[in-house]
Amino acid sequence: MTPEEFRAQFPSLTDWIWLDTPGAPPGARRVVDSLTSSLDDWLSGSFEWTEWDSAADHARGEFARYTGIAPSHVASQGSLAEAAATAVRCTPPGKSILVSGDEFRSVLFPALAYAASTGTSVRVVKRKPGHSRSTELLDAIDKTTGLVLVSEVLTNDGELVDLDAICATAHRHGALVFANLTQTLGVLVSDLSGHPADIIATHGYKWMLCPRGTTWLVADPDLKLMRAHTPSWKTASSPPHYFGGPYSESATMSRCNASPAWLSWIGARAALDLLGRLDEKRCREHVLDLANAYSEVLVEAGFRILNLGRPSHVVVASPPPRHRVDAATLRRNRIRATTTEGGALRVGFHYFNVFSDVDAATAAACAGIIPCG
């Protein structure tokens, strides 16, 4: 599927130049159609709740095929925070959790809350000026580390963290790595079969085009410390039962399942079908080329790219000193992007973006530079 063919799945792109996928993408036609059909069935009373309830199980298998991993390694949950809260329980006794101080709160806060309730030590790495997140985490990993929590890309600067190096260093010290791929899976990567992280999570509502409430947690089910954060009939060994004991849990990663929000998972199945038509290498190269072209123009115009590490498809650029980017100017020019509290501009390129989007966005960004205050 070409970028133009993929683009045709998004009717809103006739009205908007959409660069705000780091926050949320526009609706894809086949995903919205699947939800609309289900809502019609709900309204008419013709739906079967047991079929809806099976959507998360089907999506878990389809996610496994999309990413090239075993279905037994996948759990379906409702949020990234739930996945992180499950992962922190895998910290080996007597070891510490390592996390960046500017990590996304749905990764950082589960670690801090777990530490407060269990006494587990959390080392929060504060970045020194001029240092990348990758460098600081690599320098901080040592023999006391039991679990490293890291997002592959954070949208506060767009750095593509060196997960290969972080995992290799952590493993040399006997530590596990939890990698949040919410900002990369579906656009920079789809094949997880050789991924170096021990535990992987992604929320589907950004680059994977799903409704909110669809998160996948990936780990080897033989990781015995990986247990259900919220045990329920969805985490039990099969066949499913609704009432009574004894307590049981699945031997696969489904033991970490959450009870599904039905409509979200129906939409996720349609999104996975669409994403499965994309070529990983072609998609990654396309969005990185767009981001590079965009960055080059803004640097020439006096912007400063905030990323201190490897570039990604997400670019955060600060205008010249004592200036900010005017959000109203962007809207007038049909640009959907985010302006930060500090006046910087954040964009993210998906496979549906094209080089004319770069031209329009850079022109609007330059036209939108206004003095602060």
What does this structure look like?
- It is built from twelve helices and 15 strands.
- The chain has 373 residues and is α/β, with parallel strands linked by helices.
Task: Give a quick summary of the entry.
The protein has helices at residues 3-7, 29-44, 49-53, 55-67, 80-87, 105-118, 133-140, 163-172, 262-275, 280-300, 327-332, 355-367; strands at 17-18, 74-77, 96-100, 122-125, 145-151, 176-180, 199-203, 215-219, 304-305, 314-318, 323-325, 335-336, 338-339, 345-348, 369-371. The chain is α/β, with parallel strands linked by helices. The chain is globular and about 65 Å long.
Task: List strands and helices in order, with pairings.
Layout (H helix, E strand, L loop, with lengths): L2 H5 L9 E2 L10 H16 L4 H5 L1 H13 L6 E4 L2 H8 L8 E5 L4 H14 L3 E4 L7 H8 L4 E7 L11 H10 L3 E5 L18 E5 L11 E5 L42 H14 L4 H21 L3 E2 L8 E5 L4 E3 L1 H6 L2 E2 L1 E2 L5 E4 L6 H13 L1 E3 L2
Parallel strand pairs: 1-12, 3-4, 3-5, 5-6, 6-7
Antiparallel strand pairs: 2-8, 7-8, 9-10, 10-14, 11-15, 13-14
